[in-house]
Amino acid sequence: MGLVKRYWAGFWSLVVGLRVTGGHMLRRRVTLYYPHEKPDTAQWGGPIELVTFPETQTHDCIGCKACERICPSDCIDVEGKRPEGAKKMRATKFILDFSTCSLCGLCVDVCPTDTLQYSTRYDEAMYTRDATRNDLLRPYGEDPLFSGKAL
Amino acid sequence: MLAGLRAWLAGFVGPFVATWLLGAVLLMTFLAFNVLFLVWLERKVSAHIQRRVGPMEVGPHGALQTVADMVKLLGKQLLTPVAADRTVFLLAPLLVFVPTLCVASLIPLSGTEAFADQPYGLLVIVALSGLTVLSIFMAGWASNNKYAVLGGMRSVAQVIAYEIPVLLAALAVVLIAQTTNLRLIVEAQHHTVWYIVLQPVAALLYLIGIVAETNRAPFDIPEAESELVGGFHTEYSGMRFAMFFFAEYTNMLVLSALGATLFLGGWLGPVLPGPVWLLLKSYAIVVFMMWARWTYPRLRFDQLMSLAWKLLIPVALVNLVVTAVLVHGAG
Q1: Best of A15, A24, A25 to disrupt the B interface by mutation (most B CBs within 10 Å)?
Q2: Cβ <8 Å between A21 and B51
Q3: How far apart are CA B173 and CA B151, in angstroms?
Q4: Is B56 on the interface with A (CB under 8 A)?
């Protein structure tokens, strides 16, 4: 009797298994059909970028090197100097070596002027190691505070 | 159109060979397309069970993906290991397909159509389907590779063990129908009910048996990827590998068609023509086999053996005896 019970329990577990997989077969897919569908990147934390403030239409990086110091993987390289006649320092160089960045976000937290944020870029793939170096100042072009064409 | 083609061919080679040739070509063509369809179906079923979409890029819903795969396989180099037994190594993939083709030709497509109508059809099928394992073992042995030999040996042990419940299950049907002619078995179901109603145990045994005979998961230990690389076809590449693949999927369909003939009333069904019904029922069994493949983990070898010898064969024997007594009692 015990044997029959055991076999029945085993057989029933097989039926239950089929019901589970069969149920999944009929349900909605959970994968993204990638090249044709893009993911929702609103909450995505990609490589860091500088925040452009609406009132100044530029970033507010003062080259304080706080991010460079706190970075656990030493992937940030910042230089700054004081433009003539200005009170605040201004970044002249902001390089992120994304090949070693672990996206921990310490730099975003530590920034005193809140001018760092995660970007929404998710498809960071490149062919050379050089291409992983992000120049965060490049989108801003020539800095008007240094070239004398101040606002 | 077929009759015209046959008459035209008969002018060259005589009516007998003409029928034979035409039948073989038709069957081969259908089975080739069937394999392409089944591989696609398998990928789709597995994808949907895992909540993916499967191949989508080549053709509508990836329907031409397997054609592309086949073209790729055709272009691959055929490698022969230096230490292999050349003749046997080359012969195995050619022979693996022959028994399946013979079995396919014996299954009645409708009341009047069958490629070969044999009074002892079921016996011939049982005899022939045991031969597939011979070429699998040839492949494993000739490869001169320990994984391949292990895969081949496992396959032999498994098929010998699982042929018996399949045979006993089929025998229960023979007892009820009082004939081994497959056409008459289906006609007997026309007069009574489908034999899955009278023989649910035999139907279940047959289903388990054919999953094991086609070396599919959860009984796929002859080619268990995680243990034996590729099992018996480890050393095969390109089209030779594809032939084994081909044989496996063809075998699936043919044994399912035999199951449909024995238990699900073969070509019987309303509205649609007989062959369509037979195909629909066969594909239903095939889909169930795929569903089972993506549900159950692979059995260990001793579990596999004890399942066959300690459970399936005794149950099949008891079922056979009970059936015999009941049939005798009913007169």
Answers
A1: A25
A2: no
A3: 33
A4: yes
Angle, vertex CA B22, rays to CA B133 and CA B279, nearest 5: 60
Domain extent listing, chain A: 2-32, 40-139
Whether the link from the prior residue into B218 is cis, omega within 30° of 0, is yes
How far, in Å, CA of B304 to CA of B288, rounded?
20
Distance from CA of B237 to the nearest CA of A (A): 32
Domain boundary assignment for chain B:
1-75, 84-330
Cα→Cα distances A101→A42, A71, A95, A113, Å: 21, 9, 12, 21
- Could you identify the residue written with the tokens 């100042």? A137
pLDDT tens digits, one per residue of B157-175: 888 888 888 888 888 888 8
Q: Under an 8 A CB cutoff, do A24 and B311 touch?
A: no
Give the residue, B216 or A71, on which the prediction is more confident: A71
Cβ separation A33–B53 shorter than 8 A:
yes
Given the cut 0.85, state whether the ipTM is greater than it. Answer: no
* Closest residue to A21, CB basis, from B56, B291, B311: B291
| Cα distance between the two ends of chain B | 47
Comparing CB atoms, the residue among A17, A26, A29 nearest residue B296 is A17
Residues 243-302, chain B: which have Cβ within 8 Å of A? 291-292, 294-296
Give the model's confidence band at A72: pLDDT under 50 very low, under 70 low, under 90 confident, else very high: very high
* CATH match for A40-139 among 3.30.70.3270, 3.40.630.30, 1.10.3720.10, 1.10.8.60: 3.30.70.3270
Task: For chains A and B, count residue pairs whose Cβ atoms are closer than 8 Å.
Answer: 36
User: What confidence tens digit (pLDDT) does each residue in B303-321 have?
Assistant: 888 888 888 899 899 999 9
Amino acid at B270: P
Q: pTM of the predicted model, to two decimals?
A: 0.78
Q: Which residue has the higher pLDDT, B66 or A148?
A: B66
Angle (deg, nearest 10), helices B238-263 and B98-106: 30
pLDDT at residue A16 in the model: 92
Ranges of chain B whose pLDDT falls below 50: none
